[in-house]
Design goal:
Strand content: 25-35%
Oligomer: single chain
Radius of gyration: 23 Å
Distance between the termini: 59 Å
């Protein structure tokens, strides 16, 4: 009888746990859907520029090498992440000369100086709107996929040396998010073919980077000077780490 009661308890507990997980997932998905729907319902202001991005994500495939980069702006921090064939390097810029980096060997904040170039979208590079036909995000009609090719780029007329290069791409805007995909063909062989796809995003009200973020294994820098590596077994949070500097 005891074993039967225990089995019933396990069954009821298991069902309750599954129901709790399903409910949590539903809440997250529903919240994201509401946010997306709200963003799409807002008018796209003509003053919005590609340089106003608050999140950039880009993935590229060149031969057998896959690279993924992401940059995001928060109200209290900026983050950057680069992953090449699964090897990850990260940065949290907390302002006022305080940085956290993650990776092995220990990356320095200076390793991220040119990061924005590696995550830049084809629409905006080196402080220039690269596709004049799509000079601003709001030129794109919402939920409409628009194709582009090599002749749409601002540098094409002067690109005599790249005249054999072919580009096949598309852009699609949903609210304040633009997704893009691009294939670059530099020759007939497959090793001369590269793929690029990513996301451009604008958020008017920035989220705060969570002070509950676990920092074990991260490297702390102050004014570009290395201070310490947080123990991999530490339970220290970002908020607790920063409180050291306010005491």
């Amino acid at each position: 009888m005891l074993c039967k009661s225990q089995n019933n308890f396990k069954l009821v507990f298991g069902e309750a746990w599954i129901a709790s997980v399903v409910l949590s997932v539903f809440v997250i998905v529903f919240t994201c859907a509401v946010k997306a729907a709200h963003a799409q319902s807002l008018p796209c202001p003509k003053s919005l520029s590609w340089k106003d991005a608050t999140r950039l994500q880009r993935s590229s495939v060149q031969g057998t090498v896959t690279t993924r980069t992401e940059w995001k702006k928060y109200s209290n921090a900026t983050t950057a992440e680069r992953q090449v064939d699964g090897v990850k390097m990260q940065l949290i810029d907390l302002g006022k000369g305080t940085y956290l980096t993650f990776g092995n060997p220990r990356p320095s904040p200076k390793d991220f100086d040119q990061f924005l170039n590696s995550v830049a979208s084809p629409m905006w590079e080196s402080d220039t709107a690269s596709l004049p036909r799509f000079a601003t995000p709001c030129v794109l009609k919402s939920n409409e996929s628009v194709p582009f090719n090599e002749k749409d780029f601002i540098y094409w007329k002067n690109a005599v040396a790249q005249s054999d290069m072919k580009i096949f791409g598309s852009l699609k805007r949903q609210g304040f998010t633009v997704v893009y995909a691009m294939e670059i063909q530099r020759g007939a062989s497959s090793d001369q073919l590269s793929s690029l796809f990513g996301t451009w995003e604008y958020q008017a009200k920035l989220d705060a980077f969570p002070d509950t973020h676990a920092v074990h294994g991260w490297h702390l820098f102050r004014d570009a000077e290395f201070i310490e590596t947080i123990s991999s077994t530490s339970k220290l949070t970002l908020g607790e780490l920063l409180s050291r500097f306010t005491k």
